[in-house]
Amino acid sequence: MTLRRHALVAIALAAALALPVLLTSAGQSFYLSFASRLMIYAIAATSLNLLIGYCGLLSFGHAAFVGIGAYAASILLAEGITSAWIGWPVAVAAAALGAAAIGAVSLRTKGVYFIMITLAFAQMLYFLANSVKAYGGDEGLSLATRPALGFGLDLGDEIVFYYTVLAALCGTLYALQRVLRSRFGRVIVAIRENETRAAAIGFPVYRYQLVCFVIAGALGGLAGALLASHGKYVNPNVLHWTASGTLMIMVILGGVGHLWGGVIGAVLLLGLEHLIADYPLPWLAALAPNYPQHANLGVGLVLLAIVLFVSVEVQSGEVHAFIGPNGAGKSTLVAQLAGSIAPDTGSIMFRSRDISTLPQHERVRAGLARSYQVTSLFGRLSVLENLALAVQAREGSSFSFWRPVAAERALDDEARAFAAQVGLEARLGVEARTLAHGEQRALEIALALATRPRLVLLDEPMAGMGAEDSRHMIELIERLRGQVTVLLVEHDMDAVFRLADRVSVLVNGRLIACDTPEAVRRDPEVRRAYLGELAA
Prior knowledge:
- Mean pLDDT is 90; it is low at 283-295.
- This protein has helices at 3-25, 29-54, 63-78, 84-106, 111-131, 158-180, 183-193, 195-200, 205-231, 241-254, 261-275, 282-285, 330-338, 360-366, 383-395, 409-421, 437-449, 467-480, 493-499, 517-522, 524-531; strands at 141-142, 233-234, 302-307, 311-315, 319-323, 347-350, 353-354, 368-370, 455-459, 485-489, 502-507, 510-515.
- Helix content is 56%, strand content 10%.
- The chain folds into 2 domains: 32-285, ABC transporter involved in vitamin B12 uptake, BtuC (Orthogonal Bundle); 302-377 and 442-535, 3-Layer(aba) Sandwich (Rossmann fold).
- The chain is elongated.
- The protein has 21 helices and 12 strands.
- Helix 7 (183-193) packs across helix 9 (205-231).
- The protein is α/β, with parallel strands linked by helices and 536 residues long.
């Protein structure tokens, strides 16, 4: 955080601390209650911003977790459990469990399906709350008092409640800042940037997204518990899709992917609502929230045995090229080997182990990495951050939520070594999306190498390159010979015949040849089907 940001935060905190004194002396106690409500919505919006802005998950059912927290705390209070130290943690835990259950199902879908299924779960809970007459049903549940905080502090006092909510908001922002600067935070931002590449360097994307979903749900539950305590009332509308829409508008207004976005959005939306309260406009009223108020290769051994729509063995330590016309099945083969496409039949043996059913991140852990035909990087992260993520993925200890990842020099030192290996040591601080095409292709390979694979799948590494960049790429792949086994898919036949120890030829999903480059070049069927004059 820069000095200027530190100063702004300090000013904001000082103003928030002084506000009760100023409002009380001016006889404006209503605004103190309003400020408390505003901060509660800021916590709820911040929890949704974690999902949308940092995890890249557009949930339209986030009110479900606010509602779970509100009802859990309220039901406990109605049943005589008056301690806030019990009711509020239970509310957070209940919301977290709800988020785990909903996320476990929802995160198996993508795009509009994810949006709709989160909305559906929230609406199911809304109708459930309407039907539970024992706790108010559609009329809601009224509470006689706010929970007890202890230590001689009375939450019924608006000043005490205000400072309690302020402490919760500050704690939420501080905790999220620490999490976002940790290993875990780096991973979820990377997943938001490029989920495919995150999986390809070894991160179990689903697990990280689920943990993020649960954290956001837990924070939503805290906001719900505070909201119920604030109004001493809860009704099913807190679960309605319009409540989720309100939180989403706050996030958008305040800034998606900014730590203070939820706070700013809550101030803007609720402040605007208050200003127009005496002059209601239909289109603005619709926005208002609904509230009641390097390895030993063993050269020569079979490293990879493929029995899919083709049957091929790749020897450890070799450069094995797959060639063939467009539509022959080369990219499908690479995707099936990497684990991004499940094979319908057959098997894949890697280092004497059947990996046919392993998910992609586990194949990476087993020693199989890939590059992509179409460049796939973490575009808004620097070269150093891209490579540090791959190193971090290999270490397998990224569920670290508190220690700043910037303090882990070992990650960056190793990342620098891989950058130097592909000639990017002078570009470490540059965003990946701003690199020249040849540099991006080199970074693609460096990301794969940073996982320290036994075998790397290079899917057309020279695609779109000019002569000079192609020459550099050929030299790079030649340097890899003997360090790692390479399975190369490439249309540049000069590069293939220069690099490959063996060449397999695919035509219409059928393997028509697998031999040395010289033998493949002379093969009559290969010449007729693909090489033509190139073999002359």
